[in-house]
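Supplementary notes (optional reading)

For those who missed the lab, this is the record we used. Protein: Na+/H+ antiporter. Length: 520 residues.
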Amino acid sequence: MTDLTAVLLLVALATAVATGARHWRIPAPSLLVIAGIGVGLLPWVRDFRVSPQVINLVVLPPLLYASAEEISWRELRRVWRPVTVLAFGLVLASAAAVGAVAAAITPLSGTTAFVLGAVLASTDPVAVTALGRRLALPPRVQMMVQAESLFNDATSLVLFKVAVGTAVAGGALSGGTAAGEFVLLGGGGALVGAVVAGLVALIRRRTEDPVLETVIALVTPYAAYVLAEDVHASGVTAVVVAGVVLGGQAQRLTNAPIRLQVHAVYGTVVFLLESVVFAIIGLELPSLIRDLGAEGHAWPLQALAVAGTLLTVRMVWVFPLSAAMQRRRGIGPVTWRVPAVLSWAGTRGVLPLAAALSIPLTAHDGTPLPQRELVLVLTTAVVVFTLVLQGFTLAPVVRRSGIALEPAHTEREEANARDSLARAGLTQLEQLAELEAAPEVVVDQLRRGLQARLDHARAQLDEAADPADSTATAYRAMRRALIEAESAELQRLYDEHRISDTTRRRIQRTLDLEDVGLGE
């Protein structure tokens, strides 16, 4: 089997498993990891290896960019204090605790154990975002989980470079050197990301070609990552900053058709990359274990102890921090619900795996770096453990906590927004009608359309208030039946050669957009 065939089969497997996970409403990352392990254990499957350059350069940038685009500046300003504490203090504490435990229970030396701690210190934005999409968390909680995972990278990268430098060179870096590394990595990456975002915004404001806009959107995260890495800054931080800045300007940079196309293309790319990368994590574990040999027979217990240490340290940090925040905001008695969800959402994923794979093979004197294989096995095992255990149980924890938003809440919020938009449109239309800015027939047509949208929004609000009222449901069913009839007539006109394919596609797109706008 050639490498190309193996890659294509991996993509097909990952896509099929991820599609099944969506259908069965279970966490796709967790199921993908299990499927990867299952395939990796098959006797005729050869050892699977992927270089850290492939993960860092090909996979991570678009996934990080897509996660960062979802960050809201308004929500981020509300949670920057706890996010800062978690992104700095918790990362340092986790690295120190894992290093101490690993040095005590594994054959790893002190410096190599700290390398393991630095690798696993930060939560993974790709895994956290993939698991969090399906949970109806309150905006503040969702923002804390996602922002922490995106902004703790610079801290973990500095720790990792310090730890690897110590293990390879046999010496320790000073505190001043570590601080300088952090400024260069974090600050330099943020500066590069901001510059790239500014340049891309200037280009996109002057572009109205959907294909070119899509290409620019796909290239942006790679440009930010490569430029930052070329100046020895954090490419991950650059991608995150570029995504946050451009995500907040998306409505002003492009028009509606371009936004729809870019969103569709990016959704496809993210789905494929996420599916493949989580399957890779599972595939690599069996081959890494085989390389470890007989001397590493205790790795399951060691990985379990390391994972338990990470979860314990996270709880020790998150619960007091959450209690302090609740007291500061004056929200009644302190509750366990939010810190429990925050603690359980700290999964590891792609970033730790890429960091572990990038550990040098030899020290500066040319001798093999001791216990590198064990670090790789423990890292991958902990990643698998968190993705499977926390991934499958995060939704029950959220439901048990009672903080998840009810579907009715989201529906009422959306219906209220649609009601306000329709009223604003009617008000503006009446003002334009008084100025005689358009023929009366045009005004009447627009008025009927806006009134229909207003009636639909009111029906949704009435249904939310009284679930027994099925007006909105009946409206959606009837309108979809009409759209189906219109689509059939459109196809008949095309089959009879009365309209061109361009006209058919354009009108069908309009009908599809209306169908999607009806909701569920």
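If you only remember one thing from this example: The chain has 21 helices and no strands.
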